[in-house]
Amino acid sequence: xxxxxxxxxxxxxxxxxxxxxxxxxxxxxxxxxxxxxxxxxxxxxxxxxxxxxxxxxxxxxxxxxxxxxxxxxxxxxxxxxxxxxxxxxxxxxxxxxxxxxxxxxxxxxxxxxxxxxxxxxxxxxxxxxxxxxxxxxxxxxxxxxxxxxxxxxxxxxxxxxxxxxxxxxxxxxxxxxxxxxxxxxxxxxxxxxxxxxxxxxxxxxxxxxxxxxxxxxxxxxxxxxxxxxxxxxxxxxxxxxxxxxxxxxxxxxxxxxxxxxxxxxxxxxxxxxxxxxxxxxxxxxxxxxxxxxxxxxxxxxxxxxxxxxxxxxxxxxxxxxxxxxxxxxxxxxxxxxxxxxxxxxxxxxxxxxxxxxxxxxxxxxxxxxxxxxxxxxxxxxxxxxxxxxxxxxxxxxxxxxxxxxxxxxxxxxxxxxxxxxxxxxxxxxxxxxxxxxxxxxxxxxxxxxxxxxxxxxxxxxxxxxxxxxxxxxxxxxxxxxxxxxxxxxxxxxxxxxxxxxxxxxxxxxxxxxxxxxxxxxxxxxxxxxxxxxxxxxxxx
Amino acid sequence: xxxxxxxxxxxxxxxxxxxxxxxxxxxxxxxxxxxxxxxxxxxxxxxxxxxxxxxxxxxxxxxxxxxxxxxxxxxxxxxxxxxxxxxxxxxxxxxxxxxxxxxxxxxxxxxxxxxxxxxxxxxxxxxxxxxxxxxxxxxxxxxxxxxxxxxxxxxxxxxxxxxxxxxxxxxxxxxxxxxxxxxxxxxxxxxxxxxxxxxxxxxxx
Lengths: 540, 205
Fold this sequence. Notes:
The complex is a heterodimer. Chain A is an alpha+beta fold. Chain A has helices at 3-10, 31-41, 99-110, 222-226, 231-238, 246-261, 267-295, 299-320, 342-365, 368-374, 382-387, 392-396, 404-407, 428-450, 506-515, 521-531, 535-539, and strands at residues 15-18, 22-26, 46-54, 59-67, 70-81, 88-90, 113-115, 157-163, 169-175, 182-186, 198-204, 207-214, 329-330, 333-334, 471-479, 482-490, 498-502.
């Protein structure tokens, strides 16, 4: 019995169709049953992405699910909340913990409240923000939400919708921190939060009792902006999400549009994109390593890491014209063919980086103080990483195999042999080493590809105005911090109807509370460094 | 691939004259044309020389530009060569805030507070098109379109993100600006202001 029949027999009331992925639509009241069935009976234990939607008449949510055995095989669950005035849905955060923050985001953007979610504060936006920006009827009048130069006091109360026995819903408030707790604010301006992230940390002496992350200090409204931009215009915003994985982000959105258009991409382009992705990954991991070491007090490591990163940036500079934000991928190929000296530059870089990697390991990894600060600290179990969908090197350090390069091969990844770096310890040291090992895995991939770039076009012609056929599309790449997905809902116009970027960083922030509990406050910095979140990617 | 000569405002790049903000020194010459107190002037020059070559930036970054700011601090570009090496994490110890990245509505009060916490004399460099004009996010509902709506800006460094060379140039322009300031008379005025305020407070008490 295949999956579709299985689901049909378990959920008779659901409509099932085969679009890009198997899509299950359920009514509002059947959501809980469908979610529980998928989670417990069919083993879909990963909630890759939770997307709020405004279909014009009804609001709703789209869930992208997969199982940890096959993270690349995705099933879509859809539901609608008919009421626009006071839309409510049941939460799924007891089934997939990652839903908690995502549902808060959907509340801020669409106004859908989730029954039984323990925390229904607005994520990303201020509590007093007027309107729900991603709704189609949002009033963007700046008079409604003027620029405010006085910080609002952060409230320690959080609302919660509780379902009573008779089916009615009651709003309750509870305290995040009590009056007796000692609370320290870390961020939004803090050199070790890697951007403008705000943690409220409750302390017992030096030990952390609870961490409450506040997001949205760099919420730029990219998803809303994309709805009024054409597809080629949209690309430029993706580079600026997770700017350290600029190439991969853009690769994902180009792939998504190309697959929807059923555009055949030349092999040469696939090779070039893969090479660029891996170079970006090395640059990103080097920066992560440098910053983590600097946060822990090793300034020399920062200088060394940045020095090696500059070598990659000059390769980018020559071929793409940009250093950090390269604007290289476009729909149908790449902006310009590689520079004649590209292969030579890369081939010079590989042995250099291998040599330097040894030096980096010698200078920091083996250091007794560094080891003591990292080993056994901030332990993340495999279950937690799956439940919160912590993908990328941080998840793989806990033994969660989530590499989209392996599970959904794209570009030229099906033509190369490489190891998915897996570890089982799940502590800060494992995350730290996973990054360094991934650098050498990336070097191996580059080595296999660099001499075999096939001849051919570097760009196929597309129509002057690109219109995507009606439908929903989602494509995945492995960015430097985990699986990055682009979801496009098209109504056949030249602009998309809804765009959602699956944030690679939000799960990393969501786990901080759990993995740093009972650790020392100084270790929070090391844990944050090892998770390596990029805040504009979280806030979007 | 042949690179075309880009035209700006109807002129090719070769025809556009590079203006290096000479007005700063001209302005100073004009002010000093009728002569100044030699002692004050020399002391001023000495102080400004010291001040201008030891500018401590705040480690403040919100997005992409922050990474380029870090690059400028690291080995290849190394702004320590021009006296910027000591980046401070506390605004109380910083002289200049480089607004590196997009400022959004939620961040605006934080930026204002950071600026208020810095000790005088303080300077602001708006780095990147986001800080200057909202950049690619100008039409967003949550992005501040010009950082000078919040704090006064001394130097604008355009780019998305600006290259490290551009930021270095911008920071050196800031140094030039600092070097033509009248530090002593301004400091005297500020002192008088503070004394006056203190007296007012005393009278009230």
